[in-house]
Structure formats: C-alpha cells, structure tokens
Write a structure and sequence with these properties.
heterotrimer; A alpha/beta; B alpha/beta; C alpha/beta; B: alpha/beta; Hypothetical Protein Ychn, Chain: A; five-stranded parallel sheet; two-stranded antiparallel ribbon; 4 helices; 24% strand; C: alpha/beta; 5 strands
Chain lengths: 130, 135, 102
Amino acid sequence: MKFSVMVSEGPYTHQASDTAYNFTKAALENGHEIFRIFFYHDGVNNGTRLSTPPQDDRNIVNRWSELAAEHDLDLVLCVAAAQRRGIADADEAKRNGKDADNIAPGFRISGLGQLIEAGIQSDRLVTFGD
Amino acid sequence: MSEVKKFLYVNRKAPYGTIYALESLEVVLIGAAFEQDVALAFLDDGVYQLAKGQATDEVGMKNFSPTYKALGDYDVNKIYVEQESLDARGLTLDDLLPLTYEDEDDDWAEKDSIKVVSAAELAEIMDQSDVVLSF
Amino acid sequence: MSQLHTVNKSPLDRGALESAVNHAMKGSAILMIEDGVYGAMNGTSKSSIVSDAMGDISFYVMGPDLKARGIDEARLIPGIKVVDYSGFVALAAEHKATQSWL
C-alpha cells in the first residue's frame, strides 16, 4: 500500500510526532511505500534544525531527517503554517526579509496542495494530531 | 482521467480557542482546485465555527467567519452540520451563517449549502468517504 | 470495506471516544492510541462507552501506549485486541480510510 501521513502537532508537546514516526517506520518495515509525510499546524515545528533536546531522550527532528535520508522520504512542511510559526528555508527567509533560516535536513517547504495530492495519490492517509 | 475521491473535512473544534478551524478552512480552499468530491462535516464543538455574529476586535484576532461564505464560490456546497450537536448546544439552523451556492445545473439558482443531518446520517457520510481529514 | 477510527485522548478528558463510537458504523474498527488507551480500561466511569458497543464495532488498543502508561492488559475491557505499530499499519491497510478523532 501507498501511505501518506499528516503530522499536525510539534515535537515533544504532543505524542503525535512520535506516533507518526513509529507508524511510518512500521509501514516501511512491512514493505509499504510512504508517498509523503505532510506537516501542518504546529507540525511544522518538527522541521527546525535548531532543536537541542536533552541527550538522554530521543531527538525527534533528527530522527525524521535520518529516516528521510535512509528511505528517501518526502517530508513536506506547509508553507503557510511554517510562515506563521517561523520555520523557513533559505529562499523563504530571503523572500520574507528574515535574517536567518532554520529548516532541518530532509524537509522541504511547499503548499497545501501537496497534502491534497497526497490524499489523491495515496491508498491511505493517516493523521496524527492533538 | 484520474480518479475522483470523496474527501471529507471533519471539524469538531470551536473557533478562536485553537487554530484548527482557521487552518482547516485554508486546506478546503486550496483543495477546491483539485476537483475532488468534497464535503465538510461540522459536529461536536465544530458547529460553533458556523455561528453568526462573530466579532473579534476585542480579542485582537482576525474574524475569518466571512470565509465560510466564499465556500460556495469554490464549488464547496456539501456542508453537513449535525443535528444532535446543535441540540446539545441549544443552537438551531437560524444561529448559523446562511451559506449558499449557485447551482449551475439549475440556472444558477441560489441554494443552501448547509444540510442538517442526524448523527446516523453523518456516520454514513463518514463511512462512504475515501479520504478523511481531521483537524 | 469499513473505516478505521483512531482515538488519542482519554474519555474522561475529551468526548472524542464517545463521539467516535456514536459515528462508527457496525463492522468498523476503533483503535485507541496514545492517551486514548485509557478508554480501554475496565472499571472506569466511561468503560460502558466501549463495552456497550462491543460486538458491533471491533476495538483495538496500542500495546506500546499501554506499557508506557503502566496499564496491565488484565485491566482491559474484555474483547479489546492489543496491537503494536505493525498491527496499526495492518489495520489502516485493511480499512478503506482512517479517521482520526482528535
């Protein structure tokens, strides 16, 4: 099956990103394809490379980047949600007159159309939120 | 021709206390361009999103309720509101924004987009959907 | 093919479990995840939400989330099946769509 996942909450505050990650890993281990992981609402906060969590706990951002690298996953942060919450890549930072960007490796910023497309192109879309 | 799927956007949260109402509307508007079979469901506290008379100056937030009125122009005209959720909140259809659309198959006659349905009917609608987006 | 419904909050905290049960068609499945696993416990003031619907709806609960919260499987409402993340994936694949009751 072709799965897509929507992550609607940020790292640590809600379990959503953890459950989404564990679900995604299990799907891959069971031979399924992941079409896209779409981050919306506070979910875009999973895409900041400035996160420095305590050493003795999981690193949610890095975990997503590593899984994406290992499996060539498409991790998409919604541009409108990212703008609201201050997650930017170099282009977005320049476009919006910001003096820095903070996007983590493996993530890209794009429009809500990518979520709809994921719903159309995938066999299953599962949402993790509050 | 690519497949047309039944998309259902489920709204169960009140407006303003959280961003879900506003940001889900943004998905609906963008999604309208993809020519899928779209329906919106408002139940539980989600019915409050459609309440008339929202005035947000004193909370300093944007009043996004006028955007619901634009849904008809985006061909989003299947807006299901649950009867039981209205009843539990002491609301009737009269308390809600009058959402309409122009039916191109009926000489552009103006029709109501909101259909008040029972929980049982809404359960059927949910069950028939191919993609369910919850906010 | 029927739907899979997920619930991620405790029924004593949110109305999501009750709402999900009220809208799940006969033959569909409800999976309790994250804090939603408290809805699987027997002997609570909300246990009847699940036990009354048992038989019409298939109930599942995430084992990893039970363990995280120190909930012994012996305390679950009879009839609920415990699954892991692979089981979650399988349920999502088997059902037509997954609806999250947030």
